[in-house]
Amino acid sequence: MKIDQFPETIRPHLIPKPSGELIYRCLGCQAEHSIESLLYTCPDCGQVLLIHDRRFDRLKALSGETWQQILDYRRMLKIPALKGIYRYHEFIGPVIPLDSVVYLGEGHTPVVEANTVLQEKTGMRFFYKNDGQNPSASFKDRGMASALSYIHFLIQEGIIDEVLSICASTGDTSAAAALYAAYLKPDIKSAVLLPHRKVTPQQLSQPLGSGADVFEIPGVFDDCMKVVEALADGYNVALLNSKNAWRILGQESYSYEIAQDFDYAMADKVVVVPIGNAGNITAVMNGFLKFFDVGIIDALPKIVGVQSEHANPVYNYYSQTAGDGRRFVPMTVKPSVAQAAMIGNPVSMPRVIYLVDRYNRVAGEPRVFFAQVTEQAIMDWQLTANRNGHIACTHGGESLAGLEEALKNGWVNAKETAIIDSTAHALKFSGFQDMYFQDSFPEGFAVQPKPALVNQPRYVCPAHLKRVPEPGKPMAKEDFATFVEAVAGQIAGDLGLKKR
Fold first, then answer.
1. What is the pLDDT of residues 349-376, one digit of tens each?
2. DSSP 8-class letter at 20
3. Domain annotation covers residue 70
4. Which of 190, 203, 247, 330 could join 212 in a cystine, given CB atoms 3.0 to 4.6 angstroms apart?
5. Which residues, 6+ apart, have CB-to-CB distance to 382 below 8 Å?
6. Digit-coded pLDDT (tens) for 130-179
7. How many domains are there within the chain?
8. Which residues carry this modification: N6-(pyridoxal phosphate)lysine (predicted)?
9. Inter-residue contact 177 to 144 (CB < 8 Å)
């Protein structure tokens, strides 16, 4: 549609122009800093930052209903910069002009309702939001679209040049960072740090394919993160982990999309997300709070954050009695099939503590909960979901296992509707499925295959056949007919088929 075909009342607002006044605000000392510098922690106290719009209240000049119309009509525009996460420009990066926006097809991922069998097995109505259908096959593209659009803006303004982007990763972050940096060559180059042999081959192939400099180091993600932090502190590089507050802004789009896809009715909704470095749950809470503040939604949904018992520092924190006695203690993680969430010291933990308190206070009751699940439950639920028409990764299995815990604990009920996060494409973690089917999990994972969920290919080559097809060696017509009949007969017998 063209602008003159839209309602007159919203035409002036459909194509956003740069607005607002963004600054970094420290969660520790509350100091404010200019966004014209590449900052990741507060120069004064070292605490993490959130991006704050000093002029956010200007958005309240329009009613919540008008904002709903703007966003709903905006989806019909054919402007590339508004097709992705920047459909919500005023809430994500209002100072960034549209010609600085980097759009590679991210955002607006499918929300697929679970079939009857899976809903009955789970005990409530739920949908999977398949973030594995982002360009690099994970939710990380949301944050990278924001962070790299911001860097692109600084380059266009002449504020910075010759940028080297760098990140630590368990796989998905590196894939997204390398992809978006590659799009902005030659202005931006990319380097990624990975824990040696703790990233799936599929994930490792992605930054290599995008041309990034890839470094593997001993240890786990937390060790990689310390090296990246040292590089960011001592050298002129752009850090692209979720310590980067622009990443959080981009990931808020996940909550905006859920609100829009469910017609902004959030009172009876439950959003379930896995927790790794804690950037995602931070962004989801902040996004819903913004929409609520402006009146686009009139209730805050429940949020359930999920961790494996092998990497559960956030769960451990909230398991303690509320009050001044609560202490966050980093942990040494154990092997987990939810590999991207295998993080013992999440950098966004201060953001989580701040936003959980604010979220529950604004809601007037506890609306954020934290569940712990077993490795066994993660694998069993992932395979069960995919046997019922989904493409859930292990983290999608973790989220579904978390929903089961939330129901068991009475945090949610069967009358509500859940939206489950599958953060990446199932193919990225297919190696864990293979280990399940072959019963080859190392002991540290504590996963035992259930026979009903194991699936293996069956080789069909009837023993009585003298000749079978071979590449480059055509068979005689009679021999091939005999082969087809024998193989079809054996398959029909295995499947219990009846002849016509």
1. 999 999 999 999 999 999 999 999 999 9
2. S
3. no
4. 190
5. 337, 392, 393, 394, 396, 397, 398, 400, 426, 433
6. 999 999 999 999 999 999 999 999 999 999 988 999 999 888 999 999 99
7. 3
8. 140
9. yes
Assessment of whether the complete model's pTM goes beyond 0.90 = yes
Q: How far apart are CA 322 and CA 95, in angstroms?
A: 38
Distances (CA, A) of 494 to 87, 305, 467, 497: 52, 43, 22, 8
Q: Are residues 334 and 474 in the same domain?
A: no
The structure tokens 């398949």 sit at 130
321 Cβ neighbours under 8 A, 6+ residues apart: none
Radius of gyration, CA atoms only, the chain: 25
Instruction: Examine residue 313 and state whether it is found in any structural domain, yes or no.
Output: yes
The segment with the largest mean pLDDT, out of 187-201, 318-332, 405-419, 461-475, is: 405-419
Give the domain extent around 484: 459-500
State the chain's mean pLDDT as an integer: 95
Instruction: Kindly tell me if the per-residue pLDDT of 324 is higher than 90.
Output: no
Task: Match 């202005």 to its residue by tokens.
Answer: 187
pLDDT value for 261: 98
CA distances from 347 to 85, 140, 221, 279 (A): 24, 16, 11, 8
Q: Position of tokens 């799936």? A: 200
Q: Tell whether 243 and 256 lie within a shared domain.
A: no
Neighbours of 235 (CB within 10 A): 9
Q: Which SS3 state, helix, strand or coil, does residue 317 take? A: helix
Pairing of strands 32-34, 22-26: antiparallel
* CATH number reported for the structural domain that contains residue 271 in this entry: 3.40.50.1100
Q: Could you tell me which residues come within 8 angstroms of residue 460 by beta carbon, excluding any fewer than 6 positions away? A: 487, 490, 491
Bridging pattern class, strands 417-422 and 125-130: parallel
Q: What is the pLDDT of residue 374?
A: 98
pLDDT of residue 121: 97
Q: Could you give the angle at which helices 349-363 and 279-294 cross, rounded to 10 degrees?
A: 30
Q: How many CA atoms lie within 13 A of 463 on its CB side?
A: 0
Whether residues 324 and 443 fall in one domain: yes
* Euclidean distance between CA atoms 72 and 81, whole angstroms: 16
Amino acid 413 reads: N
Stronger pLDDT, 212 or 203, i.e. the higher one: 212
Considering the domain architecture, whether residues 127 and 147 belong to the same structural domain is answered as: no
Identify the pLDDT of residue 450.
97
